[in-house]
Amino acid sequence: MALNVGIIGATGYVGEELVRILCQHPEVTEIITASRDFAGSTLMRFFLTCGGMLSWRYWIWRGCRN
Length: 66
Prior knowledge:
Structural class: alpha/beta
Mean pLDDT: 70
Number of domains: 1
Number of helices: 1
Organism: Syntrophaceticus schinkii
GO molecular function: NAD binding; oxidoreductase activity, acting on the aldehyde or oxo group of donors, NAD or NADP as acceptor
Radius of gyration: 12 Å
Pfam families: Semialdhyde_dh
InterPro entries: NAD(P)-bd_dom_sf, Semialdehyde_DH_NAD-bd
Low-confidence stretches: none
Protein name: Semialdehyde dehydrogenase NAD-binding domain-containing protein
Strand order of the largest sheet: 1-2-3
């Protein structure tokens, strides 16, 4: 079963560790990241070991709305 994963706050300590762990998971095929501070920049400098699995741009997360 292929899994696509989204991580909000991917440049924080927990987010970075989660990306690192998910990059090694055999069923994860795509990781999409969101970061308020790094929106629009690339992920290359943070996650060099994930290859083509990551969406290589940060997306803006505007939060949940009711």
